[in-house]
């Protein structure tokens, strides 16, 4: 079962990379773009047939390693 | 002084640190492999710079879970002295032995250059050979040195005098908004901090690379001579 | 399975693989039968320009390569010179031009990774990196993207492995618009009694694979880097390799740890043409045979064919011939560093390379003719184009304005933006960082010895007169080293030119080598290693093929017996200024 | 309208980060984890009310800047 963990900087934490991309998109004439935020996805192949249990495990991995809760939030979802 | 340097896969400034420590103690420090689970009898544990685990995921994140870390935690709880430089600082924050986090440099570029640090207090083992507000030059070389913490943490660090070093101009002028003075964009131009008991110090720049006139100066040396004096007594 | 695998092996497929009709005829006569697809792949990469130096070999031989202090000249993975106290400096320069156009970050990064491996393969701890970069017109928007990616890539790899990047050079010219040059140089230090060579020996000795797993990346990279570069390049995109500097760092430490024992008989990195060239070269040089069981190759992807494994250019891999009783000791070291380790074959007395996979014999080629009958071309040369006439020197702006204009021009402007992205101090031995002296200086740890190093070439001089330009590049490297107080020892080179099938380019190539040779002989400054990069061409707007400026980049190395005597650029107060030489 | 562009390395392209994280998760005793792949998400605020048009624009931005098509694939979806 494939679980995707998405990790984003917490609201309020400055995201210089997002700002830089936002700026670059404006330079490229994508005028419609407002705020840009950048995060990370971690796709995990988990040997588990129950989606709920897979999510529990993914959440544990996120708390243990995949996200730094001082600055980041995360969410896990089954994708396959 | 009995010093030990922890080596993780991808650590690359352990030799620099060993040279600096040897130059002040006369003996080679112990190298401690990340898979050890006990520390030898030590006065100082150093987490050196480098790219532990390639800096993949987040700098220091994987090293913070290495097998040696529980022993380092116990060492800290027992009041041991720990110095974390660059990647070592990142590891200490990821392990929550120090508060806050280090984000990508505001310029989004790796920065390898000299910077100037102001010593914020000199009543610690790490800073006793400087005077308060002394300014010294030191190389920095990192992509993720942008110190950040929530407001409450910053207030606590400032209030309790736990800021060790700040990036400043050569004359000591502080301006966190000026990228020429605060090159990575750190909050409050913070370059290094202490733990509550002042026995753990994390900092981004590399004083260990400036301890020899041949390499351009000895500006970083007081950190090491001070530690020897404090820890050997 | 690759598309090519379904096609019959014939002259048409051979042509697709870059072999001429005549070369394919030679393959048939060596084999005495139609080769298998894997065999054809092996011939095609071994006889590519990149691996066989077929257009350049005859001329490279004319360069001086010997001096009393030269321990190993060209022919090994890198050049080796005596620096005193039983120590040796090991160094080489190598190009990664074509990949850096397709994917600037990864192209440059893997270029750095490749040259590092060439140096630590020989037993040296890498102590410094340099790079020589040429980009297109700064006003071309592509140039910005390429400069940014290349600089990040060089830094991204070098910084992570912890080898200081201490010098280099950068030029801009429209002739590099679609074909930037990324030449990377590494200098390492080894004990003279601990230098490792690539000639395999000892029939029955195991052949060991270490490092990263093999994937489908970069298949046919070697032939790509030798074929003319054009729009088709886009179609070849998936051949880009991704580097893993973290694994490279582990590989350096693990190899050096194993090299401290006497377990290794021979060792070779898997560079261009991966497993093929490393296996063929090791066995060929040693005059032995080699048999590999490809089932044992650590694989990253499912269902890889023998052809794909032999041609893969996955990075961070090495091939080692080891003493049989030391295999377990070696395994323990590589496991400690969390690297793949597999016994994939052994040496034989057949003089043949034999590959087995899933119970089939996928290739069985005699090694001697594969090497000896590799094509050598004496391609036609034409006199170089006449130099662009110099305009009469006028002074329309006044000396002050002229000076300001010069300082502003891209070729002279400060390179601080670049070198500030490279860690130049890691290792704690950097005596002169970028910008501090005419050559960078590194102290050899635990000694007073200093190494001075520089890269130099002025392509527009070479365009005006390739022979003088080639000589000038050598002389400039020599002067830069001398200016630090060091004694120049030897050079490595990276000869970047256009298509050798154009007589005027071939003429530039031959002339530049003549000039370099002359200067090297005059200065007692032999060439101990190097690299040739041909077919640096792009399609111009009207479809014609445009060659880059002739660019024989020179990497120079010198030694200071007492590094504390090194001289820099900074002028202390109260000194007099002297000008030496005629103006 | 918020559009999320997810950028992943193409199949077959080496993912050094994913490999290192996989290894670290095993060390942390998450034995159920198989393959790990790491990618990027870029959340774009697009001033556009028609979801289909927002996706078209996000795709253009991905091709122009957000993804490196030499080694990466991408997908865009409306998230809010
Ligand atoms: N690509 C590069 N990487 C690192 N350092 C560089 C690079 N290009 C130039 N430098 C450094 O910038 C300084 C000036 O370069 P250059 O103008 O080529 O000097 P010179 O003409 O003295 O050889 C030198 O110290 C050189 O090593």
Automatic annotation (TrEMBL), chains A, D:
Catalyzed reactions per annotation: N(2)-formyl-N(1)-(5-phospho-beta-D-ribosyl)glycinamide + L-glutamine + ATP + H2O = 2-formamido-N(1)-(5-O-phospho-beta-D-ribosyl)acetamidine + L-glutamate + ADP + phosphate + H(+)
One GO-annotated biological process of the protein: 'de novo' IMP biosynthetic process
Pathway stated in the Swiss-Prot or TrEMBL entry: Purine metabolism; IMP biosynthesis via de novo pathway; 5-amino-1-(5-phospho-D-ribosyl)imidazole from N(2)-formyl-N(1)-(5-phospho-D-ribosyl)glycinamide: step 1/2
One Gene Ontology term, aspect cellular component: cytoplasm
GO molecular function, one term: phosphoribosylformylglycinamidine synthase activity
Domain of life: Bacteria
EC numbers: 6.3.5.3
InterPro entries: PurS, PurS-like_sf
Cell compartment(s), UniProt: Cytoplasm
Alphabetized Gene3D superfamilies for the sequence: Phosphoribosylformylglycinamidine synthase subunit PurS
Record keywords, A-Z: ATP-binding, Cytoplasm, Ligase, Nucleotide-binding, Purine biosynthesis
Major location (coarse): cytoplasm
Subunit structure: Part of the FGAM synthase complex composed of 1 PurL, 1 PurQ and 2 PurS subunits.
Role: Part of the phosphoribosylformylglycinamidine synthase complex involved in the purines biosynthetic pathway. Catalyzes the ATP-dependent conversion of formylglycinamide ribonucleotide (FGAR) and glutamine to yield formylglycinamidine ribonucleotide (FGAM) and glutamate. The FGAM synthase complex is composed of three subunits. PurQ produces an ammonia molecule by converting glutamine to glutamate. PurL transfers the ammonia molecule to FGAR to form FGAM in an ATP-dependent manner.
Family: Belongs to the PurS family.
Name under which the protein is recorded: Phosphoribosylformylglycinamidine synthase subunit PurS
Organism: Novacetimonas pomaceti
Lineage: Bacteria, Pseudomonadati, Pseudomonadota, Alphaproteobacteria, Acetobacterales
From TrEMBL, chain B:
Enzyme Commission number(s): 6.3.5.3, 3.5.1.2
Pfam family name, one: GATase_5
Keywords: ATP-binding, Cytoplasm, Glutamine amidotransferase, Hydrolase, Ligase, Nucleotide-binding, Purine biosynthesis
Catalytic reaction(s) noted: L-glutamine + H2O = L-glutamate + NH4(+); N(2)-formyl-N(1)-(5-phospho-beta-D-ribosyl)glycinamide + L-glutamine + ATP + H2O = 2-formamido-N(1)-(5-O-phospho-beta-D-ribosyl)acetamidine + L-glutamate + ADP + phosphate + H(+)
Biochemical pathway: Purine metabolism; IMP biosynthesis via de novo pathway; 5-amino-1-(5-phospho-D-ribosyl)imidazole from N(2)-formyl-N(1)-(5-phospho-D-ribosyl)glycinamide: step 1/2
Active-site residues, record numbering mapped to chain: 86 (nucleophile), 206, 208
Cell location: Cytoplasm
Signal sequence segment: none
InterPro entries documented for this protein: Class_I_gatase-like, PRibForGlyAmidine_synth_PurQ
Job description of the protein: Part of the phosphoribosylformylglycinamidine synthase complex involved in the purines biosynthetic pathway. Catalyzes the ATP-dependent conversion of formylglycinamide ribonucleotide (FGAR) and glutamine to yield formylglycinamidine ribonucleotide (FGAM) and glutamate. The FGAM synthase complex is composed of three subunits. PurQ produces an ammonia molecule by converting glutamine to glutamate. PurL transfers the ammonia molecule to FGAR to form FGAM in an ATP-dependent manner.
PANTHER family listed in its UniProt record: PHOSPHORIBOSYLFORMYLGLYCINAMIDINE SYNTHASE SUBUNIT PURQ
Subunit-level organization: Part of the FGAM synthase complex composed of 1 PurL, 1 PurQ and 2 PurS subunits.
Protein name: Phosphoribosylformylglycinamidine synthase subunit PurQ
Species, as recorded: Novacetimonas pomaceti
Gene: purQ
């Amino acid at each position: 079962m494939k679980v995707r963990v998405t990790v984003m900087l917490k609201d309020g934490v400055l995201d210089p990379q997002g700002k830089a991309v936002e700026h670059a998109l404006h330079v490229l004439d994508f005028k419609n773009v407002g705020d840009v935020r950048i995060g990370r996805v971690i796709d995990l192949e988990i040997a588990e047939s129950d989606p709920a249990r897979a999510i529990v495990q993914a959440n544990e991995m996120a708390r243990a390693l995949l996200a730094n809760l001082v600055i980041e939030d995360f969410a896990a979802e089954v994708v396959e | 002084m009995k010093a030990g340097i922890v080596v993780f896969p991808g650590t690359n400034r352990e030799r620099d640190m060993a040279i600096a420590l040897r130059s002040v103690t006369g003996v080679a420090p112990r190298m401690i492999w990340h898979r050890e689970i006990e520390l030898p009898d030590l006065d100082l544990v150093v987490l050196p710079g480098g790219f532990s685990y390639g800096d993949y995921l987040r700098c220091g994140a994987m090293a913070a879970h290495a097998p040696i870390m529980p022993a380092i935690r116990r060492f800290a709880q027992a009041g041991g002295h720990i110095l974390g430089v660059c990647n070592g600082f990142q590891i200490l924050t990821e392990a929550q032995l120090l508060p806050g986090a280090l984000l990508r440099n505001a310029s989004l570029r790796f920065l390898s250059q000299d910077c100037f640090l102001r010593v914020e207090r000199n009543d610690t083992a790490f800073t006793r050979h400087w005077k308060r507000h002394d300014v010294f030059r030191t190389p920095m070389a990192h992509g993720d040195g942008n110190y950040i913490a929530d407001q409450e943490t910053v207030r606590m660090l400032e209030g309790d005098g736990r800021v060790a070093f700040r990036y400043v101009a050569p004359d000591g002028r502080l301006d966190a908004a000026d990228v020429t003075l605060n090159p990575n964009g750190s909050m409050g131009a913070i370059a290094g901090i202490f733990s509550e008991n002042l026995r753990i110090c994390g900092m981004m720049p590399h004083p260990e690379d400036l301890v020899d006139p041949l390499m351009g100066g000895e500006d970083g040396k007081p950190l090491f001579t001070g530690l020897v004096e404090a820890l050997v007594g | 399975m690759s598309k090519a695998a379904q096609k019959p092996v014939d002259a048409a497929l051979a042509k697709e693989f870059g072999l001429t009709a005549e070369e394919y005829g030679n393959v048939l006569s060596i084999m005495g039968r139609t080769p298998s697809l894997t065999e054809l792949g092996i011939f095609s990469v071994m006889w590519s320009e990149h691996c066989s130096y077929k257009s350049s070999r005859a001329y490279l031989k004319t360069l001086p390569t010997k001096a009393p202090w030269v321990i190993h000249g060209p022919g090994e993975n890198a050049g080796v010179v005596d620096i005193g106290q039983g120590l040796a400096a090991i160094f080489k320069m190598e190009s990664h031009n074509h990949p850096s156009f397709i994917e600037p970050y990864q192209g440059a990064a893997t270029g750095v990774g490749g040259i590092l491996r060439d140096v630590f393969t020989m037993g040296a701890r890498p102590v410094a990196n340099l790079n020589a970069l040429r980009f297109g017109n700064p006003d071309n928007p592509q140039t910005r993207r390429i400069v940014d990616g290349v600089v990040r890539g060089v830094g991204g790899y070098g910084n992570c492995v912890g080898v200081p990047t201490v010098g280099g050079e950068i030029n801009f010219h429209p002739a590099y618009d679609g074909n930037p040059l990324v030449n990377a140089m590494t200098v390492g230090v080894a004990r003279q009694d601990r230098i490792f060579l690539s000639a395999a020996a000892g029939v029955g000795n195991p052949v060991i694979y270490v490092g990263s797993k093999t994937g489908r990346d970069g298949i046919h990279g070697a032939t790509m880097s030798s074929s003319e570069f054009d729009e088709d390049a886009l179609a070849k995109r998936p051949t880009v390799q991704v580097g893993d500097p973290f694994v490279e760092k582990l590989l350096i430490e693990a190899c050096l740890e194993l090299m401290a024992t006497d377990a290794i008989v021979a060792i070779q990195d898997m560079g261009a043409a991966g497993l093929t060239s490393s296996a063929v070269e090791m066995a060929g040089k040693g005059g032995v045979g080699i048999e590999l069981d490809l089932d044992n190759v650590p694989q990253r992807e499912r269902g890889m064919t023998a052809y794909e494994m032999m041609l893969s250019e996955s990075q961070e891999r090495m091939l080692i011939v080891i003493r049989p009783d030391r295999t377990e000791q070696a395994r323990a070291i590589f496991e400690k560093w969390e690297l793949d380790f597999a016994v994939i074959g052994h040496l034989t007395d057949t003089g043949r390379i034999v590959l087995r996979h899933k119970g089939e014999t996928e290739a069985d080629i005699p090694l001697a003719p594969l090497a000896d009958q590799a094509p050598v071309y004496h391609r036609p040369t034409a006199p170089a184009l006449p130099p662009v006439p110099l305009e009469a020197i006028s002074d329309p702006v006044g000396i002050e304005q002229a000076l300001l204009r010069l300082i502003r021009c891209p070729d002279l402007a400060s390179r601080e933006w670049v070198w500030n992205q490279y860690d130049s101090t890691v290792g704690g031995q950097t005596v002169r960082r970028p910008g501090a002296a005419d050559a960078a200086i590194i102290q050899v740890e635990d000694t007073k010895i200093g190494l001075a190093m520089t890269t130099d070439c002025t392509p527009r001089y070479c365009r005006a007169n390739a022979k003088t330009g080639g000589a000038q590049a050598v002389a400039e490297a020599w002067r830069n080293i001398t200016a630090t107080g060091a004694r120049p020892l030897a050079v490595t080179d990276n000869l970047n030119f256009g298509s050798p099938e154009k007589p005027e380019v071939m003429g530039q190539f031959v002339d530049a080598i003549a000039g370099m040779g002359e200067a090297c002989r005059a200065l007692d400054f032999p060439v101990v290693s190097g690299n040739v990069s041909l077919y640096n061409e792009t399609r111009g707007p009207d479809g014609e093929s445009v060659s880059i400026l002739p660019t024989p980049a020179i990497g120079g190395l010198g030694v200071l017996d007492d590094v504390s005597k090194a001289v820099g650029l900074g002028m202390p107060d109260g000194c007099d200024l002297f000008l030496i030489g005629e103006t």
